[in-house]
Structures are given as C-alpha cells and as structure tokens.
C-alpha cells in the first residue's frame, strides 16, 4: 500500500512544472502548474495574486527558442504551447490598451497600465515629440518621488533617471522645470492619471510594433491600437485605418494583407512582408484579436477566422474572451473597497544612479519579490542595441497591385502625420518579432554611428548572408559596393504562378476526394437495411439494379475471396511455424 502511494506521488510530481511570471513592476511570481493546466488557470492565478478584477486588458506573453514572442492562449494547454523545456518563464503585459485609461474603474488597473506605458516610453515604443516627452517624464517623477525638495533633489537630479532610450541635457532641464513648477501638490494617483491622459492622446499610444517591409523593400512598423491599424515609417504615421474600415486580415507565408473599405466605397489592399512565417502568423493573430476586442459589440459575435479564402488551406483562429464594450459594462458593476497599492519611489544611488522599470507592487504580502534595477550605463547599452533595429527612412508605400508615390501614400489610410522628432526605432529586445538576425549592412553602419561596436562574428554573418551586386536576388548597393538583400522582397511572377497552380491542384484533389467519399457513403447506405424513403426509391430504379448486379456484387465477391485467401495463408504460416517448433497444431 505504501509503495503504491509513493509511486503515485512520484507520478504526480512528474506531472507538475514550475512556472515563473515576471510582473509589470519587475517582481516575479512563481507557481506550480499541472501538465494539463490551461492558460486560463495561470492567468486567473496571477490576477488573484494582484487582486485584479479588470483583467481583460492584460495577457501573458512568452518567447519561444527562436526568440519569437507569443501571447499565451487561455483555452489551450500551457506545456503544449511552450516550445521550451520547463521551468517556464513568462511575463504579464497589457495586451489590449484601454481606449480611455481615465475611464478604468479601479486604481489598481490604472496603476498597472501606468507601469506598462512607462515601459513603452523607456524602450522607445511610445515615441513622441520632445515637449510631450518632457511632460510625461515629469509626471513620472512627481508620481514616484513626490514634490520637488531642494534638500533632497540637488541640481541635475532629473539626469539620475533614465526615462527614454536617449535624451539630452536640454530635455533633462525641461523635465526638472516642469516638475518644480507645474506639478507641485499632485498626489501619485493624480500624476498617474494625468500621465495616462497625456499618453492616450499620442499617435503611438498602445502600439506594439511589428517590424515588416513593404513591397518596395522599405522598412516599416505595423501595429494595432485601440483605434485601428497603423503603419509607421520614419518619424511619420503613413497609414491609419479605423477598425470599422478593416474588412479582413490575411497572411500566407511571410506575406500579410490588410483589406479595408473607406468612404465612397474605396477599397484598399495593403501588403507587407514579415521577417519569418512565424512572425507573420503572430502578426495576423494579434490583428484578429485586436479587431474582435475593439470592433465587436458582443463576444457572441466572434467567429472563427481563416487566414486563407480556401477552407482546406491556411490557419484558423478564434478570439476567446470578452470585447471592450462588455469589459466596460462589467467594470461599472464592480463594488468593493479599493485594494491597497504599495508604491515604491525611484531611489537613485550615489555611486551608481539607477531607475527601476516600475515600483514594487505588494497586493499580497507573502510574495517572493525581486527588485530589478537598470543603471544608466545599462540604459546606454540598451540605446546602442536599439540602433540595430530596422532603420526607417522612407515614407513611400506600395500595395500588392501598384507602387504609390509619396503624395498618393498620404491619401490612403488617412493623412500622414508626424509622430516625433526622430525616426521610430524601438529597442530590439521589446519587439514581438526577432529582428536582430535580419540586420543589414545599413544597420551595422547606423550602430557604428551611434558608438556601438559590432563583433567580428556578426560582421562575418552579415557578409556571408549578403549576395554580390551581380547575383540574382540582390538588393540595393550601399556606398561600399556591397549589396544589401531585401528580406521582404515580393515574389517573382514565376513563383506567383507556381503558387496559383499548386492552389488549383490542391482544390481539385480535395474536390475529387469529397466526391469519392460521398459516392462510397451513398453505396453503403443503399446496400444497408435502413428503411428510408429516398433510399428505397433509389434501390428500385433500374440504374441502381444494373449497378448492383453488374458491378457491386462481383466486386464484393472478389474482395471476399481475397480476404479468405489472405486468411488461409496466415493459417498455413501459423501451422508451419508450429510444426517447426515441435508444437502440436491447433
């Protein structure tokens, strides 16, 4: 009995995995999950730990061994989604940014969104003009260190903290001036609310950038926001499609298509190319989820979406969860005492000035917490890393049918608007798609200009993957005479024709297979003893009687003979084997 109990315990231990989730304040939550545990179990566990009720805006993100980021699906088993070996490491992030953060019901939700947007600002996702950046940084200072105190905050105190990938002394002085004069007396709650309202008004609010290239090979960042689909190139937003204008999202391989209808029945098809097929599928799934969350009125309207027009081809995906309108209606019904929030201010060290990505949150006191500090020197390293991200210098855009000029691109998907003083270039480490392996020679030149020294191994890999100017498939030639390949170049006419032929053949094969299966099903039904009116009518027709006597009965007798013959051979082989072994035959 004891041995059975112990063996059962061992089996139970083998069915359990350790899982660590990094929260928005850079603390860690560790738990044990069963082998068949689904994503919803882990997500509910974290939300209970944080005392979070407005949880539909958040999600759990993980990175596979190929450095591709994914959102954990709540309806599927966790171990089956994770391609890595346990223990699993994930992180809690804002998945759907609230259209109006000020309308959130509870302060704990606003605080977590505040931490997420502060991360976006630090890593370059929330790019804005200098004046807006100074105001946002001043609100962070006021929320986390309080009012300006000459005794505690010496001259140049704002330079001790890293709010952005990079900033100048002039910007630091402007941040300090706003903090000293305009924000005195504001509580942390008020400063966080003002920060959210300011961030919500920016063009890049809610942007989770996906690096892609258009049909001309120009780098671009695609993103889905609470208000629609955006395309960022350089320091401009070149396309903006509202969610009610987007009719379909489709992908095939590395190619991503956006179909939209604008006013006066103007139809648009935008085409982009992702670095890898996995990145393109992740981009498509993010678009399907965002469109369902922000566009639909009820979750009952959610339908399964296919990535292809043909039912037997492509991926199928269905968003599982409530939509934005339902979330707001459910939030209005929350009636409880506001949970306690323990904020920890920014604590710069005299020897090594540092800043935490977010204050420590302790809704549950018995939590193992790990404070993560990033020094200014590490921030500069992050800045140098961000130079390797895809450079964006062109605002021209083309779709799958034509190449538009700059003036034409401005007319499609909304007017072009300037989002910042610099080109949009978030850090590689926060992009949902790995782009470090797709660096070109231009990337290395940009990194060198910013003071980043590339390794010899990286230079060898870059040269090995770069064709010469005379080779087919080569891209643009830089100043040094070396060709830069276009990772997202459109397919040739021959390749497109081959793909079309394969699609037609696949359709024919499936059609023939379905017809054959239906014919077999009909024969089985007519030869059965089922007493159904339409089957009786079929049996009485002369054509069926002729088919039954001339084809079906001989074919059935032939199969029966073959089966008896095969059975006789097996019996003889068994007897022969038994005689050889000296055993009596049965």
Fold and architecture overview:
Residues 402-419 have a biased composition (Polar residues). Residues 1-13, 347-413 and 437-491 have low confidence and may be disordered. This protein is 39% helix and 16% strand. It is an alpha+beta fold and 586 residues long. Strand 1 (16-22) and strand 2 (28-34) form a beta hairpin. The longest helix has 39 residues, at 542-580. The chain is elongated. It contains 16 helices and 19 strands.
Task: Explain briefly what this protein structure is.
Keywords: Membrane, Transmembrane, Transmembrane helix. This protein is about 40% helix and about 15% strand.
The helix/strand class is alpha+beta
Task: Please tally the β strands and state the result.
Answer: 19
Poorly predicted parts? 1-13, 347-413, 437-491
Rg, nearest Å: 31 Å
The percentage of residues in β strands lies in: 15-25%
Distance between the termini: 43 Å
Summarize the biggest pleated sheet: 8 strands, antiparallel
Mean pLDDT: 75
Task: Give the proportion of residues in helices.
Answer: 25-40%
Query: Count the helices. How many?
Result: 16
With strands numbered from the N-terminus, the spatial order across the biggest sheet is: 10-11-12-6-7-8-9-17
Anisotropy-based shape: elongated
What attributes characterize this protein structure?
disordered N terminus, transmembrane, 8-stranded antiparallel sheet, 586 residues, 5-stranded mixed sheet, elongated, FA, FERM_PH-like_C, alpha+beta, FERM domain-containing protein 5-like
């Amino acid at each position: 009995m004891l041995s059975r109990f112990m063996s059962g315990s061992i089996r139970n231990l083998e069915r359990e995995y350790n899982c660590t989730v990094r929260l928005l304040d850079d603390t860690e939550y560790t738990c044990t999950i069963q082998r068949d545990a689904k994503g919803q179990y882990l997500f509910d566990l974290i939300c209970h730990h944080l005392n979070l009720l407005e949880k539909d805006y958040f999600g759990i993100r993980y990175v596979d061994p190929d450095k591709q980021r994914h959102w954990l699906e709540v309806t599927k088993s966790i171990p089956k989604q994770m391609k890595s070996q346990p223990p699993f490491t994930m992180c809690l992030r804002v998945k759907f940014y609230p259209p109006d953060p000020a309308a959130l019901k509870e302060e704990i939700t606003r605080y977590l969104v505040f931490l997420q947007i502060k991360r976006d600002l630090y890593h370059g996702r929330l790019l804005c003009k200098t004046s807006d950046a100074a105001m946002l940084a001043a609100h962070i200072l006021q929320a986390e260190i309080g009012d300006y105190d000459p005794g505690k905050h010496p001259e140049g105190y704002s330079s001790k903290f890293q709010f952005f990938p990079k900033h100048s002394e002039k910007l630091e002085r402007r941040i300090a001036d706003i903090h000293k004069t305009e924000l005195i007396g504001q509580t942390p709650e008020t400063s966080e609310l003002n920060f959210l309202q300011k961030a919500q008004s920016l063009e890049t609010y809610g942007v989770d950038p996906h690096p892609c290239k258009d049909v001309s090979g120009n780098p671009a960042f695609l993103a889905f926001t609470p208000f629609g689909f955006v395309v960022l190139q350089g320091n401009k937003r070149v396309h903006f499609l509202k969610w009610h204008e987007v009719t379909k999202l489709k992908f095939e391989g590395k190619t991503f298509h956006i179909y939209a209808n604008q006013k006066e029945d103007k139809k648009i098809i935008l085409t982009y190319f992702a670095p890898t097929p996995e990145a393109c599928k992740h981009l498509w799934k993010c678009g399907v989820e965002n469109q369902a969350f922000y566009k639909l009125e009820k979750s009952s309207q959610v339908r399964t979406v296919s990535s292809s027009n043909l039912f037997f081809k492509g991926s199928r995906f269905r968003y599982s969860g409530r939509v934005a309108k339902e979330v707001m209606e459910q939030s209005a019904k929350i009636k409880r005492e506001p949970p306690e929030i323990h904020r920890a201010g920014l604590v710069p060290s005299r020897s090594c000035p540092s800043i935490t990505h977010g204050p420590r949150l302790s809704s549950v006191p018995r939590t193992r917490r790990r404070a993560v500090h990033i020094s200014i020197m590490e921030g500069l390293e992050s800045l140098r890393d961000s130079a390797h991200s895809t450079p964006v210098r062109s605002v021209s855009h083309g779709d799958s049918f034509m190449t538009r000029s700059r003036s034409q691109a401005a007319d499609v998907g909304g007017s072009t608007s300037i989002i910042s003083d610099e080109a949009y270039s978030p850090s590689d480490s926060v992009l949902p798609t790995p782009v470090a392996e797709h660096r070109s020679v231009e990337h290395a030149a940009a990194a060198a200009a910013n003071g980043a020294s590339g390794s010899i191994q990286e230079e060898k890999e870059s040269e090995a993957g770069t064709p010469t100017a005379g080779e087919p498939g080569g891209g643009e030639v830089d100043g040094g005479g070396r060709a830069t390949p276009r990772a997202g170049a459109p397919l040739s006419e021959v390749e497109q024709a081959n793909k079309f032929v394969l699609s037609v053949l696949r359709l024919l094969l499936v059609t023939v297979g379905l017809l054959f299966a239906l014919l077999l099903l009909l024969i089985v039904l007519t030869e059965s003893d089922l007493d159904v009116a339409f089957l009786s009518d079929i049996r009485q027709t002369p054509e069926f009687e002729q088919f039954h006597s001339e084809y079906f009965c001989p074919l059935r007798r032939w199969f029966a003979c073959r089966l008896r013959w095969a059975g006789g051979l097996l019996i003889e082989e068994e007897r022969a084997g038994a005689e050889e072994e000296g055993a009596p035959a049965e």
